[in-house]
Write a structure and sequence with these properties.
Layout: E1 2-4, H1 15-26, E2 33-35, E3 43-44, H2 52-64, E4 70-73, E5 78-79, H3 81-85, E6 91-93, E7 98-99, E8 104-107, H4 117-126, H5 129-137, H6 141-155, H7 157-161, H8 165-177, E9 182-185, E10 192-196, E11 199-203, H9 207-210, E12 212-217, E13 222-227, H10 230-233, E14 248-252
Parallel strand pairs: 1-2, 2-4, 3-5, 4-6, 8-9, 9-11, 10-14
Antiparallel strand pairs: 1-12, 7-8, 10-11, 12-13
C-alpha cells in the first residue's frame, strides 16, 4: 500500500508537473494507493470551481481503479470531494477516520487536536450542506475560492507547526482500546513515530515539502518513507521503524 499526503498541488507554482510525473511512476507498481488529504492546494469539488488538473487527476484515479484500490481521505483543503466525486475512487470519505478492518486506522489529522478551536469552527462553518448549496448558486466562485484558500493558510498556523503530542497519544490510546494497532495521519507536515502499549502511530511526510511517500505492507506491518523517484528507479530501502534522525520517536508504556 502506498500513502501520499499533503501534496498541495498548485499550478501557479508548477508543482503539478512533478506530481503527475509521480503518478506516471506509480503506474509501474501494483499496490493499493491512499491519498491522505490536502493533495491539491484547494479543491472545491463543484462545477465552476475545479481546474483541469482536478479532472486530469480524477481520470487517472478512474483508470488505476480498474487494477487496484484507490482511496481518498478528505483533508482541510478539500471541500465536498467524497460526496461529489466519490465514484472516481474505490472509496472516499469526508469522515475523520477510515478503519480498514485489518487493524489500521487512516486519517488526515486536521481534527485530531481539540484545542485547535479556530480551525474546527472554520471547518464547521464552511463544510456543510448550506454552504455547498450556496456555492452552487453564486456566480463569483473563483473569487470565493481565493478567499477560502487565503483563510485556510491563517486559521491554524500555530497548531499546524507544533505537534499536539497529548492529542496524538490520546488518539493512539483510543485506537488501541478499539483493537487498532496502527494509525496513519498527515496534516502536520512532520514525520514522526509514536509507540504506546504495542500500538504505533505514524505521521506521514508532506509530499509538498519533501517529495516523499510512504509504503506500508499490511501483512508484515512494515512502514518506510522514501522519495517518490525511487518507485521508477527501483531503489527500495529496507524498512526502518524511524525513517531518519529528523523524525521524533516517542515510546510510552
Amino acid at each position: 500500500m502506498i500513502l501520499i499526503a499533503d501534496a498541495h498541488v498548485n499550478t501557479a507554482k508548477g508543482t503539478h508537473r512533478h506530481f503527475f510525473r509521480m503518478l506516471d511512476a506509480l503506474e509501474g507498481t501494483r499496490e493499493d494507493i491512499v491519498f491522505m488529504g490536502d493533495i491539491f492546494d484547494l479543491w472545491i469539488a463543484l462545477p465552476g470551481y475545479e481546474q483541469r488538473v482536478h479532472a486530469r487527476f480524477l481520470a487517472w484515479c478512474r483508470r488505476q481503479g480498474m487494477h487496484r484500490k484507490i482511496g481518498y481521505i478528505e483533508g482541510n483543503h478539500e471541500f465536498f470531494l467524497a460526496e461529489e466525486k466519490g465514484d472516481a475512487f474505490s472509496w472516499a470519505t469526508d469522515r475523520a477516520f477510515r478503519i480498514d478492518g485489518r487493524g489500521s486506522l487512516f486519517c488526515h489529522g486536521d481534527r485530531i487536536n481539540p484545542l485547535d478551536r479556530n480551525y474546527l469552527l472554520f471547518r464547521k462553518l464552511t463544510k456543510n450542506r448550506f454552504v455547498k448549496e450556496m456555492l452552487r448558486r453564486l456566480p463569483w466562485g473563483p473569487f470565493i475560492a481565493e478567499i477560502v484558500k487565503k483563510q485556510l493558510k491563517h486559521t491554524n498556523p500555530t497548531f499546524r507547526n507544533h505537534l499536539p503530542r497529548k492529542a496524538l497519544l490520546d488518539l493512539l490510546s483510543a485506537a488501541r482500546t478499539s483493537g487498532i494497532d496502527r494509525v496513519f495521519a498527515a496534516h502536520f507536515h512532520q514525520e514522526a513515530f509514536f509507540e504506546q502499549n504495542g500500538a504505533h502511530l505514524h505521521l506521514l511526510p508532506a509530499w509538498m515539502d519533501t517529495g516523499r511517500i510512504t509504503r506500508f505492507d499490511p501483512r508484515t506491518g512494515r512502514v518506510v518513507h522514501l522519495p517518490w523517484q525511487a518507485l521508477s528507479e527501483g531503489r527500495m530501502p529496507r524498512h526502518r521503524r524511524v525513517p531518519d534522525r529528523a523524525v521524533a520517536a516517542v515510546k510510552i508504556g
